[in-house]
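Q: Structure tokens for this one, please.
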Amino acid sequence: MEHIAIIGNGISGVTLARHIRKLSDKKITIISAETDYFFSRTALMYVFMRHLKFEHTQPYEADFWKKNKIELKKAFVNRVDTENKSLFFSDNSTLKYDKLVIATGSKPNKFGWKGQDSNGVFSLYSKQDLEKTEQLALNCKRAVVVGGGLIGIELVEMLLSRNIPVTYLVREKSFWSGVLPSGESEMISKHIVEHHVDLRLDTNLEEIIADELGNTKAIVTDKGETIDCMMVGITVGVSPNIDFLKGSTIDINRGVKVNRFLETNIKDVYAIGDCAEQHEAIGNRKTIEAVWYTGRMMGETLAQTLCGNPMQYNPGHWFNSAKFLDIEYQTYGWVFSKPLENEEQFYWEHSANKKAIRISFDKETKVFLGINTFGIRMRHDFFDKILTEKKSVYYVMEHLKEANFDPEFFKPHEKEIQVQFNLQFKNLETV
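A: Here is the predicted structure, written as tokens:
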């Protein structure tokens, strides 16, 4: 019986195993050094905030794996021998495979700051990170979070939930301005300050200072300012977790290099999820995508290939969602922080500064390209269809009510948005 070994028990690896089992009776082994069972990594913050218990993050009962004949091995892979199709573990044990899938995810970036290994420096990626953060928070009088992205704002929200004062260092002149256009970026920056966060824009971390016991006691910014703190959350991006592959025959760059079939340069070796790097970008997407749903899609796709139905990875239209404290964010299609040459953008912001939308469309053809929404829920299926059918911005504006997914009794804003669009572009049509 063919043996498929999967290194990594995150969303990519577990989705792959589940779909292989649906399609075949192949032998499957999932290997992870982190936890016994798969858990939802995106839910860790809610465990810290006491909305959930850790066991609630595990979507499958403990006997699910045995029932589905999926073997679990808790071990750390030191080395991969592709010639002999063998894995070597840190406890000196080995495992033979017929086909190997690397699904080892990401690890938090660090940039060699002095003091970055002191007690009190944390991130939130693994179960071990959660346990460490819980301990550090018990007696914390002030924390610093470094990095103005989606994980950074989650750490800020977590710490605020424990009434820990937070200083937030963001290197950009406005929050997440590399991704968000200026209107939305400034709106979120104001919202962060309204939550009594000490937001330091255009500020970088220079050094972390520890006491004689190695405990974090302060940080120094690139402005020369010293800020006392007991915790420092580092959220300056992630990198593929592939150090164990250095020196192997598997082609790696920042991630494990794969083609559209998620194959590496070595026969019978594949990579999926955060650690996979496409040889060429798919559309406007990055060659490495550390996004939950693309990891799931790669697992579903590769299962087809491994079970005799070769299938190329096709992630479809870009979408994502997040939450900035009290403001929900969704994006469908492409809305760049600065419009491209062929693009026009329409921006509406509610007077209360908690809701906004931005629509991007082609200057010449008026074809809808993408939308950002803040504080207004929109339907994924609506925009997926619109993007596929290449409808015009006029069509989208005319049918905006159909896209809305806000709960009952929420005040609608479509008319207000349409009036502003008409005033700005003067020629709304029904298409």
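A few notes: The mean pLDDT is 95. Residues 292-306 form the longest helix (15 residues).
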